[in-house]
Amino acid sequence: LAWCQTFAESSIIALAKKTSKTLKSLDLSECKQITDQSITALSLHSFELESLNVTNCVKITDASILMILDTCLKMKNLNLGGCIKITDHGLSKMTGKIMRLEVLRLSRCYKVTDTTVMRIGKACVEMHTLLLSGCREIKGNAVRFLVA
């Protein structure tokens, strides 16, 4: 479904309900109309979801991601690249919920700082990929912590 610029929220809700027991991976990247309401509906029905890509879904906030992590307990791969409303504050609330993630992409999440990256590094023992390109607020401290 990537790049579906006119994809309606009602369609996401219908998809989530219809595929609740089978949907494991969903790519909604560049779907600019996707909102927190869409992601909340998705999370309430997609318990088998392991991978979600919401790259450049610019309307998504911390609330959506917290809901996904609360309800999609099999989530291993989460791509939030370019989700400009994702904040350091929201990510800090997520650190206890992301321990099972193996891949987390935060590229161009401009509000992410060293503090949250270090929390993620401590919490996510299963993580093998953390992408932070374009995160302007990340300085050397987080990088040094991650490689130490």
Keywords for this entry:
single chain; 148 residues; alpha/beta; 5-stranded parallel β-sheet
Helix content: 25-40%
Within the largest sheet, what's the order of strands? 1-2-3-4-5
Beta content: 5-15%
What's the pLDDT, averaged over the residues? 86
Element-by-element helix/strand order: HEHEHEHEHEH
Task: Report how far the terminal alpha carbons are from each other.
Answer: 39 Å
Rg result? 15 Å
Structural class: alpha/beta
Total beta strands: 5
Largest sheet report: 5 strands, parallel
Give the helix tally: 6
Low-pLDDT ranges: none
General form? globular
Task: Write a compact overview of the structure shown.
With 148 residues, the protein is of the alpha/beta class. It has helices at 9-18, 36-45, 62-71, 88-94, 114-123, 140-147; strands spanning 25-27, 51-53, 77-79, 103-105, 129-131.
